[in-house]
Poly(3-hydroxybutyrate) depolymerase
Amino acid sequence: MTDVQTRNRDVPSEQPEAPSLLTLQARVAEVYQGRCIAAAEAYLDAMGTAGRAYVDATRPLTPLQAFNDAATYWADFAQRSVLFWDTLRQRGNNWLKHENAGKPPLLAFDWEMVADARTFEHPVNYALVRIVPPASTQTDPGKRPYVIIDPRAGHGPGIGGFKSDSEVGVALRAGHPVYVVIFFPDPVEGQTLADVSQAEAAFLRLVRSRHPTRGKPVIVGNCQGGWAAMLVGALDPDCAGPIVVNGAPMSYWAGNDAENPMRYAGGMLGGSWTALFASDLGGGIFDGAYLVDNFEYLNPANTLFGKNYNLFAKIDSEPERYLEFERWWGGYFLMNREEIRWIVDNLFVGNKLAAGDAQWSEGHAFDLRGIRSPIILFASLGDNITPPQQAFNWVADLYPTTEDLKANGQVIVGLMHRSIGHLGIFVSASVARREHAQIVDLLEYIEHLPPGLYGMEIEEQRSNGATRYDVILTERRVEDLQRLQKYARRDEVPFGAVEKVSELNASLYEAFVHPMLGTLVSPESARLGRALHPLRVRHWAVSDLNPWLAPIKEWAEFARTHRTHRDKAGASVASERLLAAGITASWDLFRQMRDATVENAFYNVYGAMSVADAGSRREAPAAEPMRTGSALRPAARMEEGGFTEAAVRAALLVARAGKHQRRLSTAKRIRALVGHDVGLLDLSAEAAGRIVRQQAQLVENDPGRAMATLPLLLPTLAERERLLGLLERLMADIDVEPRQRALLPEFRRRLAPEADPDRNGLKRAPAALAAARPSRRPDQARRANR
């Protein structure tokens, strides 16, 4: 967006020169002009498309045909209107029923309470529940459990198990026990985000004790639950298994112009003081309805027209889906003042998480580098709430280079959807069946990946009407993340000025406004204010509490009994669609112009501040990699280990000679053929992952020496021939590239030299295939693969 420069991450020693204020303002004006022109063109294109569709749909009619078309249309219009208002009445009644029931989690599965954190030493309004599998689903006690953390971002829990085809559903069908971290509507007085993270870590330890499986529990975090999952992994890395982060903002300043307007909200509102003000109006309680308001603000065309018109236009088929979703969307949960302040100061405005400055107690910060488990990041190009830049950029902040990431032994897998929106990442049944199901499949093998950054692609294979999926992992470099940025992250610099303005405004508010306002707002007036929030009013005002709506139910029953359907190909329906398209296009034009104006104002104000403050701009130091023992003493580690280490090293040497792509189907085939022979499956997932990381680092540092010292890990000729037999078996049964196959003679030369059998003190042992476990028959291998 601007030409304000940040540190070049590839050349940390260089400090680019900041532009002049005139250059900055000229660039901002140029972008603003382009956005206004693009908005006008989009409006004209939408209206042109709608006009052409109207012309194509209309045809000459006789007077009788025109009369019949108009009569049936207006009869249908009247009936749809009654049914529409009756659906809104049902929505209001459902909302009241849910409120009176205490707003329980909206899970599509039965569940039982395991632990209630309201009884902990530091109580919080969270609980751990176990999902009771349906009668048709059996879980495998040998498989690791899943712990799903739903977002506490205004709405209630349940989005991860909202329907059968969901994150909960696909994990259950794969045989995994599933737990969900839920929360209650009202916070416990005095609870903090640190208390919440500690409670979630305690839940994780409890699940681990209930399921002492080979692998540690998988943590799945959705949206706000994603960074909550990362905090738990940082607090208790010894208990956390792989972490799946779905649509979660982790790098809050990131984004691109014309795509991600929400990131400017903190600056345009002057920082965190508005959240404090809203909390004080609530008597020290922050109303989650404000957060839902922010989401609805993003797309006024859908909020003010599109969603309701879709219900009106499809009134015979849409109400069930509409009411189901509105039960969750209309449940507004609360936070206390300190919780929302920590979130805004440390995350939304401060962006301190990746820098290691987000403290959970005095002098103790969350250190994401302490996470030792593999991480899967799932984002979408169609998500304007958590854009891919916010989901992925923290990786480059934490690990400036690929070498840093590998030195820390970290595995990060990124999955990008092309178009799905933010909520679709969690609630879409098609996304659950495709993306989430493949994530569950990959998690069985992820701890055997060498450290690195991987791009995950899902390949569809259609045969005889059935669809099968395969996962392709392509090794990427951290530096490749720059492809997501329009301006090489130079547009993030002004957000540093936002942080300083926020700190100033918050200190002024705390000094002069909070002491007075805090004493004026009583708990009763705070509850009344929440009840009168427009988002709540639209529910209870259109319900059976409203006497003016009493006849609607009977009218709706009459309309359903005597339903008259319009001619969907008629001129009247074409006119309705033209009008609807015009209204939608007008709201979209308003949104685009509004967002462009807000963006322009943001960069004119804070960009100018950042230019003035260029000399004193805070630069986050590059993260120091956590050097492991293998990084400090690679030569010594080269000669340490046994058969399992040798087999892993050989596999990594073969993989290194390929195109840096791995197929999940190939990994399954390899496990079926030689998995138990290698020995990794006899170890805990943590121990197996440690061996893979160590050997990967040795191969990465010095592949030639790693090959040369391979025989030293195998003290007997029998072990060498056994490993060679495994390699030959794999080369025969697995498709490998010519460069990889060319390594087999080198392995033979190293492991089976034609020499005296007593040379180097080695005694001849039985042949390799006799020493190795007998190969499975093809039918056995197919069963193992399944």
Observations:
- The first strand starts at residue 111 and ends at 116.
- The longest helix spans residues 571-612.
- DSSP finds 32 helices and 15 strands in the chain.
